[in-house]
Amino acid sequence: MSAMLTDDRDAAYSIVNDLADWSDWQPFFDAALDAPLMPGVYQMRLRDGLIVYVGMARERRGQGIRGRLSMYRRGKGAVSGFGEAALDRALADADFIEEHLARVRTGQPARTAVWAQNAIRWFDVEVRWVECDTGKATSVLENAAIELLLVHGIWNRVAVKATRAPTPVGIVIELAAGLGVSNLTTVARLTDELGLDDGGRAVRRALRKGFPDHRGSTSWDPLAPAHVAYVRAQLGRLHG
C-alpha cells in the first residue's frame, strides 16, 4: 500500500463516505428540486459509480444546496462549477455534437442554457449532499473530499490543473478533524467490530501500513474517521 492513501480509489471513496452523513444518491434532475435550502457540500457521480465532482453551496439568499443545484438544472451554470465541467466534456464528445447539429440543420438550434442542461442529461449524473451548520464546516468538508478524490477522475478545475502528487493522509485527517467529527473510536472497539481476537495487532498493523507518518511512540486512540474507514476497507475484505 502506498504511503499516499489517495492512490487507492476504494479507500478514498470509503473515507469520503465516512466524513459526513451524506444523503442517498439520487438522479440529478429529480433530486435538485427537493434539495435542502441549507448550506452544504454535494457530490456528482456517473451511473457507473465514478465520482466526478465535489462542490459546496453557501446560503445563496436562503436557497443553499437547492439554489446551487437549481442553477445547473436550469442551465444557468454553463460557465462555472459543475455546469461548465459537464458542458466542456459533452462538447468534446462527437456523438453529443452530432445530436445537436442535427437540430441546427432542421432549423431548431438550442439556446446555451439548453446545451448546458443537455450536457448534464448526457452524462446521466446522480447527486448526493450533506448539510453543514457553518461556512467553515462547508469549506473544510469540500476541501477534504476534493483532496481525497483529486487523482480519481473528478472534474473540478483543481484536479484538471493538478500536477502534484496526492496529498499525504495526515493532511486529510487534519481536514476531517476540522469538521468536529465526534464518532471517533478506538483500536479495541474496531477490533471487536471486525470480530478479531488478537488484542488489536491486526488493526495496528494495518494502520502502520496505511499511515506510516504516525509516530510509533504515540497511541492511535482515539481513531480519526480516516483511520477507521481505512482499516474497515482493508481488514473487512479479509474478515467480513
Q: Mind explaining what this structure looks like?
A:
This protein has a 4-stranded antiparallel sheet. The N terminus is likely disordered. It has 240 residues and is an alpha+beta fold. Strand 2 and strand 3 form a beta hairpin. Helix 4 crosses helix 6 and helix 11 crosses helix 12.
Write the layout of secondary structure elements.
Elements: H1 9-19, E1 26-27, H2 28-31, E2 40-45, E3 51-57, H3 64-73, H4 81-91, H5 94-105, H6 112-123, E4 126-131, H7 135-149, H8 157-161, H9 169-177, H10 187-193, H11 201-210, H12 225-239
Antiparallel strand pairs: 1-4, 2-3, 2-4
Q: What attributes does this structure have?
A:
single chain, 240 residues, alpha+beta, 4-stranded antiparallel sheet, 12 helices, disordered N terminus
Q: End-to-end distance, in Å?
A: 20 Å
Number of strands: 4
Class by SSE composition: alpha+beta
Q: DSSP helix count?
A: 12
- Round the mean pLDDT to the nearest integer and report it: 82
- Note the run of SSEs as H and E: HEHEEHHHHEHHHHHH
Q: How much strand content do the residues show?
A: 5-15%
Computed CA radius of gyration, to the nearest angstrom: 20 Å
Shape: elongated
